[in-house]
Amino acid sequence: MSPRLTTLPPQAPDAILHLMEQFRADPRDDKTDLGVGVYRNAAGETPVMRAIKEAERLLWQAETTKTYTTMAGDAGFHRAMARLILGEGAPLHRLAAAATVGGTSAINIALQLLRRLNPETRVWMSSPTWANHPVMVRHLGLTGREYTYFDPETRAIDFDAMMRDLGAVEPGDVVLMHGCCHNPTGANPTLPQWAEVAALLRDRGALPMVDLAYQGFGDGLDQDAAATRLLVDTCPEVLIAASCSKNFGLYRERTGILMALGAEADRDLVQGNLTNLNRITYSFPPDHGARLVTMVLDSDELRADWMAELEQIRSGMTDIRARLADELRARSGSDRFGFLAQHRGMFSRLGANPEQVAQMRDVHGIYMLGDSRINLAGLTEASVPVLARAMLDAGL
């Protein structure tokens, strides 16, 4: 009997999409959405950045064709992103790259490359990590492993346990790490700790793979890339999956890049494989978002305006973190929520159990994921005290 579509296995609904549906159905005017992982300004909007808007205007005037670029994407985009992530002295002679359909696709292409290298590759992921990481690893038939990362009691990195777990990696294993602004916890290693991780991976013969989705959202563009640069300087081979969704505001344009840094002698071989994987996955990657990013990064004027607006976004998130920590300190008489000011990026985990998460949603209209991950960019000056009261009422 031939296969029927009706025999497909049912899929569980995505937790974030389900939360969005719940939020939309809630009739309360004072409800707060801290679940969806997109940046919002104080007006609750995800704006088009000024430099991107200007680049679009210039592109509209100058563009004369919509024909394909190349299967790996435009080389100018590769160079511009390499310099953004790895600095002006980026080792382009070691670089193979492919433009991708957002950061998620960059990770997917990287995992396909690893499967091509060795179908039995083990991919180590932090506990916890972005929910899509283990799903993609399993889907592609690779073996997933976890390493300790976050201590739910202290809401900080358990670095000793992390290093102990990573001490078990073997040659050829892949260690997937968040380059900055860890999702979902917001807790990040210090640069000296990163140096220890890099040396361990080099000595163990493991391959670092960096998910860099939030460069510029933590401590600044160069600061947020420092760990990735350290890994590239320390380890002979590194994979970097980067997204332009957040720091350029290009969510719906699905703009990303996969970069592979290895030996110069292997560059053409690796590039050929990246190009081939793009070909069999979606043939040619989209160019519009990548073109805008390239125009911004290659123009002194546009780049300066983009960096200024990005700094406003970054400092706004840092300020809202401090406001929430201060509000909780004043209401609780305790410093136990100081971790919120120390974390970086859009996300933190509050340490609430599912019952407490449900109480904050039902009583106070505060929507967050079941593991108590909140998107700080969803907060406003008015909603900070509402969240603080909800947290304390729930017994945190």
Describe the overall structure.
- With 396 residues, the protein is α/β, with parallel strands linked by helices.
- The chain has 2 domains: 127 residues, Aspartate Aminotransferase, domain 1 (Alpha-Beta Complex), CATH 3.90.1150.10; 231 residues, Aspartate Aminotransferase, domain 2.
- Helices cover 46% and strands 14% of the residues.
- The protein has 14 helices and 13 strands.
- Strands 2-10-9-8-7-3-4 form a 7-stranded mixed sheet, with helices on both faces. Strands 1-12 form a two-stranded parallel sheet. Strands 5-6 form a two-stranded antiparallel sheet.
- Helix 2 packs across helix 10 and helix 4 packs across helix 9.
Provide tags for this entry:
396 residues; alpha/beta; Aspartate Aminotransferase, domain 1; Aspartate Aminotransferase, domain 2; two-stranded parallel sheet
- CATH homolog superfamily of the largest domain: Type I PLP-dependent aspartate aminotransferase-like (Major domain)
Biggest sheet descriptor: 7 strands, mixed
Within the largest sheet, what's the order of strands? 2-10-9-8-7-3-4
Number of domain modules: 2
In the CATH scheme, the class of the largest domain would be Alpha Beta
| CATH architecture assignment name of the largest domain | 3-Layer(aba) Sandwich
Flag low-confidence runs: none
Q: Helical amount among residues, as a percent range?
A: 40-55%
Alpha plus pi helix count:
14
